[in-house]
Structure formats: C-alpha cells, structure tokens
Design a protein that fits this description.
Radius of gyration: 37 Å
Strand order of the largest sheet: 2-1-3
Strand content: 15-25%
Largest sheet: 3 strands, antiparallel
Number of strands: 9
Structural class: alpha+beta
Helix content: 25-40%
Order of helices and strands: EEHEEEEEEEH
Length: about 210
C-alpha cells in the first residue's frame, strides 16, 4: 500500500499568507514608465495565473507538493468519459494519489481541488477546479471565456450607446444654440425696425407742425 500525505478536508485548507505575494511563483512582465521606457520586471503570480498560465511563468512547487494529474479518456468525442488519476512526487518516485469520495484530488500548491464534472451544455466529461473553502466550481475555461466575451460585448455596446447619446446631446445643444441665436437676431432686427418706425413717425409729426 502506498504511503501518501493526508489530504486536507474541504473547508480546512489554509490559504496562502497575504504577506507572501510570491507564494504561487512569478513571471517577467514588461512595465512601461511615464517617460515611455520599457523594462522587464519580476511580478508575483496569482491563483488565476496558475490556473491559466502563460509561457515563461515560474510556478513554485515545494518539496512534497508536486502533484501530477492525468485525465484518462475512455470514450473520446461527445460521449467523452474521464477518469482523474493523481500522482505525488516523493524523493525517489511518483506515488499514486487517491481521490476523495467525490473523485477529486487536492492540489496543495494552488490550494484547490481538481475533479471531473459533466458539462451541462455538451453532455461530456470535463475537468473542473473547486474552491477548497466552499466546494463550488471556479468555472470551466470555456465558460469563463464566453462570460468575458459577453461582458466585453456588453461594455462595447454600452460605450456605443453612450457615445451616440453624447453625439445626440451635442447635436441638440447646437440646434438649441442656433435657434436661440436666430431668435436673438430676429428680436434685435424687430427692435431696430420698431425704433426706426418711431423715428420716422416723429419726423413726420415735426414736418407737419412746421407747415403754415
């Protein structure tokens, strides 16, 4: 019988210390300064970075924490059936890492559970990651991408509506300003005409009064 470390129960897994930002590892990122100069700086990884790594990421695997999981596919295609197999690295070799009662394997390095779930849309098995505190699924990669794409579309549509409303407001404000300017000009012309009429009437009265 293989000897393996006891897997922490869900809800009892300690989370990374907030004082250790380098817990998961690091990557080099290009940082652009205010003057436009770009430098490569070492930045810490987050749990999301570990779940969706990039080329060149250095993910920390401390001794006794390195776990490999294999999704064994028995029926490929739409009827795909997966079996999750786990192996833990010891000083000399990999030893089988048995899953829990729900078929999940605890990944200590990233503080989450990996398991298999049935995709409600496609009807096939897929890998899933679960929160060790709540047991809830983090969300499959496809769903996350679709949600991000939908959020971007909604944000773009909202921006278009805001720009259209702004253009409409500017157009209406310009039209109001033009109408007010025309009204002002018309009022001034009317006032000038009325003043000229009064002047002519006064001159006419004076001319009549001077006649013998």
């Amino acid at each position: 019988m293989s000897t393996v470390s006891k897997i922490p129960a869900r809800g009892q897994c300690p989370l990374p210390l907030a004082s250790d930002p380098w817990y998961y590892g690091y990557r080099y990122a290009q940082i652009v300064a205010a003057d436009g100069t770009a430098t490569l700086e070492q930045v810490p990884l987050t749990l999301d970075d570990v779940l969706f790594p990039q080329e060149g990421d250095f993910i920390v695997h401390t001794e006794g924490h390195l776990v490999d999981i294999i999704a064994d596919v028995s029926e490929p295609g739409k009827k795909r059936h997966l079996q999750l197999l786990g192996y833990k690295l010891t000083r000399t070799r990999y030893k089988p890492l048995p899953p829990d009662a729900q078929g999940r394997i605890y990944l200590e390095a990233v503080r989450l559970w990996a398991g298999v779930t049935r995709d409600p849309r496609g009807g096939y098995d897929r890998l899933a990651c679960y929160d060790p505190e709540t047991g809830h699924e983090f969300g499959d990669y496809t769903a996350v991408l679709e949600a991000c794409a939908k959020a971007r579309e909604q944000a773009t549509a909202a921006q278009r509506r805001a720009r259209a409303a702004e253009r409409k407001a500017r157009t209406e404000a310009h039209a109001r300003a033009q109408a007010e300017a025309r009204a002002q000009v018309q009022a001034e012309l009317r006032a000038g005409a009325e003043a000229r009429i009064r002047e002519l009437e006064t001159e006419l009265k004076q001319s009549r009064s001077r006649k013998p």
